[in-house]
Amino acid sequence: MLTLAHISDLHIDGGARARERVERVAAYLDGIADALDALVVAGDLTEHGTVAQLEEVRALLAGRLPVMVCPGNHDVVDGRAPFRRVMLGETGPQERGEAPVNAVYRLDGGAVVVCDSTVPGEGGGLLSEETLAWLEDTLDGLGRTPVVLGLHHHPAPLHLPSVDPIALQEPDRLAALLSRHPQVAGLLCGHAHTPAATSFARRPLLVAPGTVSVLPLPWEDAHRVTEAQPPAMAFHILDDQGRMTTHYRTVPPQEG
Ligand SMILES: [Fe+2]
Ligand SMILES: [Fe+2]
Q1: Which terminus of the chain, N or C, has fewer Cβ atoms within 10 Å?
Q2: GO molecular-function annotation terms (predicted)?
């Protein structure tokens, strides 16, 4: 069994509001870390992807839990190199510059695969040829190990007008890849700033709430939805039958 916490869209910008919300989430997760296997952060950790913002968010998320990150469009405004240096700790000869940020983590109850759906400088997403080839090889190599796949951009429409135009482009290529890999139990996304669930390639597609804000549906009051909601997160349990179960939670205020 694998138990994951999943957050997204922290949008650390050097200001107090975003920072306080991330502190609240991080402190809560650290307190329950013994019950969790890892924290998946599905992108837009920062507002502009500057070194200062990336260093701030890395420090905020440094706790007892292993942290698995995929970049979001806001994190790679000027390219992937700062994200790689700060979030992955690449230095000197290890630096891979603009290469997509793809990673696989093998854990006791399954594997977490995170891949890079960003197109640096653009809001919308696309899986590059390099990432698609890496994903195919990686999933082939994992055999029957159940997999949770994380990426920033949602590959299916969420009926949310502010983000559907900047969803993942060419989602059929990912769907075709997944059809060859039935061990992928579900997909975790961010980008849309809404706790939402749908399906993609016959698998659950689970969107993390935006830590910084919630984007309103057309019939919701934008001011009340965006400003009034506390930060939230998802917990995903991948059981031994390969079924994913998800609970969404708002984060309690810190004690004291
Ligand atoms: Fe975002
Ligand atoms: Fe985004």
Answers
A1: C
A2: hydrolase activity; metal ion binding
